[in-house]
């Protein structure tokens, strides 16, 4: 369905997901003590398994016997994963090691496994065409490996199509939504470029209030926004802060947000931000995230009501983002409707 802006291509709010990228599936800091985590990327359900040795694996989240989710029915027993329905067991490599009552059948079964990497505190999986693994690189997140930065990771669900949240992130003209947490004022779009995969936007903003207090920066500042499907980067001109986010589509109207805000150490002293961490995390970023979530869920609600996008977007950055999403998902996996847990 065309939107009202004259783009006669597929409806961006119904675009699927391109699985031929590295997607973050878990963060080491918040990994469950059970060693098992179920995640969804589009219609694909994945199980992240952490063996007692600390070694991670990513499998399809389905027992090959009856297709129950191992994130719900699995238990870590010794170094293995056991399905609690009939007791089948699997090694950390996904090989079936026991089929109680049917000795000798183990070799016929295994868990489907996916390529995995660890970088920036996340566990990443490649759920797409395995022949494309080598041609796809992980995103480069400069502060993730720079000890001069303090990371504040955050994750959570939002009930909207991933395009809404991506537009929200790349559009700096909505700072007033954030009220006392307003991170900047009077943005001006200085430059915009895009291609089939990426959008680069450069904004000038004034007096980043929250940040000014922390980094002593006043007056005008430039912020570079990069959307390199499916990764979002926001960087301040002088490197004082950096935001990296991935909006993982979990259905046609829901996403799981993986993000980390990196702050450069104030005066080069690490303990200052360590001390401020709870305040920044709970007092600021989660509130900002909640304000954005409320707005984009409202946008999704309007779409659901009219079954089309009647919005009148004025920021050219958002249109560039839509074009990238359309291009990237021309041959993508469709997103399922939200299904009850
Ligand atoms: S369903 Fe998992 S062992 Fe039977
Ligand atoms: Fe926002």
Task: Provide a brief overview of the structure.
This protein is of the alpha+beta class.
Terminal residue distance? 30 Å
Which CATH first-tier class of the largest domain would you pick? Alpha Beta
Structurally, the number of domains stands at 2
Largest sheet: 7 strands, antiparallel
The helix/strand order is EEEEHEEEEEEEHEEHEEEEHH
Secondary structure tally: strands: 17
The amount of helix comes to: 10-25%
Gross geometry:
globular
Strand order of the largest sheet: 11-17-16-15-14-13-12
Please, what is the CATH homologous superfamily of the largest domain? Naphthalene 1,2-dioxygenase Alpha Subunit, Chain A, domain 1
What order do the helices and strands come in, and which of them pair?
Elements: E1 23-27, E2 36-41, E3 44-50, E4 56-60, H1 70-73, E5 74-77, E6 80-83, E7 89-90, E8 96-98, E9 116-119, E10 122-125, E11 149-158, H2 162-170, E12 185-194, E13 198-206, H3 209-215, E14 220-228, E15 231-236, E16 241-251, E17 254-264, H4 270-306, H5 316-328
Antiparallel strand pairs: 1-10, 2-3, 3-4, 5-6, 6-7, 7-8, 9-10, 11-17, 12-13, 13-14, 14-15, 15-16, 16-17
Walk me through this protein's architecture:
- There is one protein chain.
- By secondary structure, this protein is of the alpha+beta class.
- The chain has helices at residues 70-73, 162-170, 209-215, 270-306, 316-328; strands at residues 23-27, 36-41, 44-50, 56-60, 74-77, 80-83, 89-90, 96-98, 116-119, 122-125, 149-158, 185-194, 198-206, 220-228, 231-236, 241-251, 254-264.
- Strands 11-17-16-15-14-13-12 form a seven-stranded antiparallel beta sheet. The chain has a four-stranded antiparallel beta sheet with strand order 5-6-7-8. It has a three-stranded antiparallel beta sheet with strand order 1-10-9, with no helix packed on it.
- The longest helix has 37 residues, at 270-306.
- The protein starts with 22 loop residues before the first strand and ends in a 13-residue tail after the last helix.
- The structure holds FE2/S2 (inorganic) cluster and fe (ii) ion.
């Amino acid at each position: 369905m065309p939107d009202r802006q004259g783009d006669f291509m597929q409806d961006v709010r119904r675009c699927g997901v391109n699985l031929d990228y590295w997607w973050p599936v878990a963060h080491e800091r918040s990994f469950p003590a059970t060693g098992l985590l179920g995640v969804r990327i589009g219609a694909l359900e994945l199980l992240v398994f952490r063996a007692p040795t600390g070694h991670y694996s990513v499998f399809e989240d389905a027992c090959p016997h009856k297709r129950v989710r191992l994130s719900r029915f699995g238990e870590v027993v010794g170094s293995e994963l056991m399905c609690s329905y009939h007791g089948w067991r699997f090694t950390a490599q996904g090989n079936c090691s026991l089929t109680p009552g049917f000795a000798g059948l183990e070799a016929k079964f295994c868990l489907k496994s996916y390529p995995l990497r660890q970088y920036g505190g996340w566990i990443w999986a490649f759920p797409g065409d395995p022949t494309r693994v080598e041609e796809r690189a992980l995103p480069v997140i400069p502060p993730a490996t720079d000890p001069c930065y303090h990371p504040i990771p955050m994750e959570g669900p939002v009930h909207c199509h991933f395009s809404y949240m991506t537009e929200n992130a790349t559009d700096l003209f909505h700072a007033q939504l954030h009220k006392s947490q307003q991170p900047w004022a009077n943005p001006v779009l200085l430059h915009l470029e895009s291609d089939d995969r990426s959008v680069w936007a450069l904004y000038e903003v004034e007096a980043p209030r929250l940040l000014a207090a922390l980094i002593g920066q006043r007056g005008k500042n430039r912020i570079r926004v990069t959307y390199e499907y499916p990764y979002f980067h926001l960087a301040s001109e002088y490197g004082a802060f950096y935001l990296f986010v991935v909006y993982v589509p979990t259905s046609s109207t829901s996403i799981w947000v993986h993000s980390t805000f990196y702050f450069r150490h104030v005066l080069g002293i690490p303990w200052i931000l360590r001390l401020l961490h709870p305040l920044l995390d709970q007092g600021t970023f989660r509130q900002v995230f909640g304000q954005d979530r409320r707005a984009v869920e409202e946008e999704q609600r309007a779409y659901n009501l009219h079954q089309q996008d009647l919005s009148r977007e004025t920021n050219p950055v958002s249109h560039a983002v839509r074009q990238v999403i359309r291009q990237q998902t021309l041959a993508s996996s469709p997103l399922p409707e939200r299904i009850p847990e």
